[in-house]
Specification:
The structure is a single chain. The protein is mainly α and 324 residues long. The chain has two domains: 46 residues, no CATH class; 235 residues, no CATH class. It is built from 17 helices and two strands. It has a two-stranded antiparallel sheet with strand order 1-2. Helix 14 packs across helix 17. It is globular.
Length: 324
């Protein structure tokens, strides 16, 4: 008796699974090695560009915190222009009194100009001298501080004023907003200009003032502070001189000048902050010396930044004036 029974030997299931995976990997490899048609490559490139642009828009309008654009701008404003103001390590001391005595400030006219609280009226006692108030700036007193430092920068004996572009060019010292524009003095500007050593500065310190001033710009002009042809430039020069005389470090001086510039030109520095926020950089991460340079803080540099972020919701227009 014979038994004719046919049968087939089945492969173990794990071998079948392994071979299937090999086939799948082989097909995937072949797919990646196959050249893409031109139309498909272009389509992918366009889609990638759209995604990149969308990502950039999200960074601009939402910021790193994920909030909307208006909220982001308000958050940045609170950081750049703190409600409590910004204080240096200096006090006003007798500076106000010295400015009055030197004729740089006519006390009655100056007081009349700044009588209201929103014009810095609460700090007018600085003019009496002996003040232990910190040299501080905020949204209310920014104009008062600007004018005090303007009067000081104009009057302080200075290499920048005596040997720099204000005197070396083919023009009179009265051809500038920082000179012809000063109308709150008891003496003529020609008599005040670089006339009095209100703060003692030796030759090394005078050179240091010049060095720092050459690196500091302001958004209303394209000139550095070593050419202080407007009130903001003259005020920044005055601040630098006071801090150099007090032995404050260069790093801190740049930080302080940036803070004062920010209160004088809030729109500009909010725009700069938004610009860097798009790149994932916080305000406190930025180098003050770099931000105060021509690329960002000059009139042309800040205008370039503004053009890139001007449509950001929450950014208002406005800036500092070069008048009293």
């Amino acid at each position: 008796m014979s038994l004719n029974k046919s049968f087939s030997l089945k492969k173990p299931s794990f071998l079948t699974s392994f071979e299937n995976k090999k086939k799948i990997f082989s097909r995937i490899k072949k797919l990646f090695l196959t050249p893409l048609p031109l139309y498909l490559a272009l389509l992918l490139a366009i889609n990638f560009g759209v995604l990149a642009a969308a990502g950039e828009y999200v960074l601009l309008t939402q910021g790193s915190s994920g909030g909307d654009s208006a909220t982001l701008v308000q958050d940045l404003k609170a950081e750049i222009l703190p409600a409590e103001g910004y204080s240096t390590s200096l006090t006003w001391g007798d500076l106000g009194k010295k400015l009055v005595e030197a004729g740089a400030i006519d006390k009655d006219r100056f007081t009349e100009n700044h009588r209201s609280p929103t014009a810095g009226g609460e700090d007018l006692d600085i003019l009496e001298g002996g003040s232990d108030k910190p040299l501080k700036i905020n949204e209310n007193n920014s104009g008062l501080v600007l004018n005090l430092l303007w009067a000081f920068g104009l009057t302080q004996k200075s290499k920048v004023l005596d040997e720099g572009p204000m005197k070396s060019g083919d023009y009179s010292i009265m051809d500038f907003a920082s000179t012809a524009g000063w109308t709150l003095g008891a003496k003529k500007v020609e008599q005040l200009y670089s006339s009095t050593e209100l703060a003692e500065l030796n030759n090394f310190q005078q050179d240091l003032v010049k060095k720092i001033a050459e690196n500091v710009y302001r958004p209303c002009c394209d000139n550095p502070t070593s050419f202080p042809d407007c009130n903001h430039g003259m005020a920044a020069l005055g601040l630098i001189e006071l801090e150099v005389a007090a032995g404050i470090s260069e790093e801190q001086i740049y930080r302080d000048v940036l803070a004062f510039n920010s209160f004088w030109f809030p729109q500009t520095y909010l725009e700069i902050a938004v610009y860097f926020n798009r790149q994932g950089k916080g305000w406190n991460e930025l180098d003050p010396k770099t931000i105060l340079g021509r690329e960002y803080s000059s009139a042309s540099g800040s205008a370039g930044i503004s053009n890139q972020v001007k449509d950001t919701p929450g950014l208002d227009s406005g800036g500092g004036s070069c008048g009293v």
